Amino acid sequence: MNKGFLLLTATLFIFAPQVALAHRSGCHTLHTCASDNESYTCGDLGYPCNGTTTLEQIDPATIFVPLATEKIFTDTFGRKPTDTESTYWKKRFRSDKNSIYKIRAAMAWHKNKNSSGPAVSAVSLPLPAKVDVVKDMNSLFASVYGRLPTASESKYWLSRTKDKSTAPAVVGALTFHKEKGILH
User: Fold this and answer.
1) What is each CA distance from 27 to 16, 33, 63, 70, 99, in whole angstroms?
2) Are the CB atoms for 102 and 63 separated by under 8 Å?
3) Largest CA distance in the chain
4) pLDDT of 19-48, one tens digit each?
5) What is the pLDDT of residues 110-153, one digit of tens each?
6) Mean pLDDT computed over every residue of the chain
7) Does an H or E element contain 135, and which?
8) What's phi and psi for 118, nearest 5 deg?
9) Cβ neighbours for 161, distance < 8 A, ≥ 6 positions apart
10) Is the CB of residue 125 less than 8 Å from the CB of residue 143?
């Protein structure tokens, strides 16, 4: 055999990258592929078990929202969410924060404001047990702003009853918009 060929073959073998039995990929971080060492179960973070390697590749419609929001909440706040917090963040994900990035940013914003999400004022308001948020929108608005809504405010807040279907949710959103000076 040719000495040059043997030397080249030996050199390639020595310096060739060693192939590891376990692959390293973003799919392990996202738990979208099977674990090489059984340290997690594929899909246990709420992301689809399809080998996706980046968050950008994940269609929000394929995310199992309860697992994903609990994981993001725990990562952000360092604890598991209460039932109220869990319900609040799952609804936020499904309505206006329909991506992992948006929900993570919203949670970080709340953490920076010493909040975990649900508006305390909305939860603690003494409201009738049964409230028709559409019929009672003017009184809910007045309870926050101390006046009746303008026509454009009324139109906006009535449109929000699709994602804010309870009196506490409406009052919480109203309070948030008032505190931020958001006009409609």
Assistant:
1) 25, 5, 14, 19, 18
2) no
3) 96
4) 444 556 778 888 889 888 888 888 888 888
5) 888 888 887 654 444 444 444 678 888 888 888 888 888 898 89
6) 79
7) none
8) -60, 135
9) 133, 134, 137, 170
10) yes
CA dist 138 and 158 (Å) reads 10
Residue 19 is given by DSSP the state P
What is d(CA 22, CA 20) in angstroms, rounded to the nearest whole number? 5
Number of H helices, E strands in the chain: 9, 0
Whole-structure pTM value:
0.48
Between CA 57 and CA 55 the distance in angstroms is 5
% helix / strand / coil in the chain, to the nearest 5?
A: 55, 0, 45
User: Residue length, the chain?
Assistant: 184
